[in-house]
């Protein structure tokens, strides 16, 4: 995972993502005058859209955080690993959205992230995250190629099926207009997902009560079907 040059065009690349819907889902779980920690905050788009008394974002990429700081003036941003958060304070709501948890490559990393989030939640605090579904890895990330032409940015994205179950290598090539020529750079990312029952079990073992599991941004869709692409989890810190 790199996010170097990519950080500066990331929001253009993600132009069609439903950030407003993510924010609407999250906002209802932030108490009045509450606090939010956005894990893997990227360019800070979620924190830009939600209302909270205190906003903090963490990310591994210093380049992404530089863009986030420019985008969101009323938030604090810190470079940290989600598996070992160390912020010396707790929050009412913690989020990890836009399939960021899928960048964790093994079960132990998921376990450590859940434990780290638990340690930073206030009493009865809420943890909200989403992941790609198993079905999406099997159908959409199965050696497929995607592309888009945004006039000043052109990209080609190869989703190559990984060697281990429910994993993918994202090989992306970007051409960015610079005056009269296009400059090329490449990004390579790896993602992995796990069955829903795995996430449920690890949440419960980390000390969470699962409030809801729903699909594809629809809180009323609580039954898994063959065509779901994104799974949402809402969990409360157990008393």
Q: What is this structure, in a nutshell?
A:
By secondary structure, the chain is α/β, with parallel strands linked by helices.
Strand content: 35-45%
**Structural class by secondary-structure content:** alpha/beta
Count of individual helical segments: 7
Order of helices and strands: HHEHEHEEHEHEEEEHEE
CATH class of the largest domain: Alpha Beta
The helix content, as a percent range, equals 10-25%
- How many beta-strand elements? 11
Q: Quick one: biggest sheet?
A: 7 strands, mixed
Uncertain segments: none
Radius of gyration (Å): 18 Å
Average pLDDT across residues?
95
The fold-level CATH name of the largest domain is Rossmann fold
Strand order, main sheet: write it out: 3-2-1-4-5-11-10
CATH architecture of the largest domain: 3-Layer(aba) Sandwich
Tally the structural domains: 2
Distance between the termini: 36 Å
Shape: globular
CATH superfamily of the largest domain: Vaccinia Virus protein VP39
Protein name: Methyltransferase domain-containing protein
Pfam family, one: Methyltransf_25
Organism: Macrococcus caseolyticus (strain JCSC5402)
InterPro entries: Methyltransf_25, Methyltransf_Superfamily, SAM-dependent_MTases_sf
């Amino acid at each position: 995972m790199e996010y170097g040059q990519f950080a500066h065009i990331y929001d253009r690349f993600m132009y069609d993502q439903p950030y407003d819907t993510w924010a609407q889902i999250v906002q209802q779980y932030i108490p009045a005058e509450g606090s939010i920690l956005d894990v893997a905050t990227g360019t800070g788009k979620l924190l830009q859209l939600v209302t909270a008394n205190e906003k903090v974002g963490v990310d591994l990429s210093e380049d992404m955080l530089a863009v986030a700081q420019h985008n969101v003036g009323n938030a604090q941003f810190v470079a940290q690993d989600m598996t070992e958060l160390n912020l010396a304070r707790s929050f009412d709501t913690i989020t990890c959205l836009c399939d960021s948890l899928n960048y964790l490559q093994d079960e132990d990393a998921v376990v450590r992230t859940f434990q780290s989030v638990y340690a930073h939640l206030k009493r009865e605090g809420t943890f909200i995250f989403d992941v790609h579904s198993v079905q999406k890895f099997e159908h959409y990330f199965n050696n497929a190629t995607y592309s888009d032409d945004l006039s000043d940015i052109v990209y080609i994205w190869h989703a190559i099926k990984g060697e281990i179950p429910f994993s993918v290598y994202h090989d992306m090539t970007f051409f960015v207009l610079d005056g009269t020529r296009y400059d090329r750079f490449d990004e390579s990312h790896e993602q992995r997902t796990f069955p829903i029952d795995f996430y449920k079990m690890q949440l419960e073992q980390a000390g969470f009560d699962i409030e809801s599991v729903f699909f594809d941004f629809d809180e009323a869709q609580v039954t898994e079907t063959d065509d779901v692409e994104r799974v949402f989890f809402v969990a409360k810190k157990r008393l």
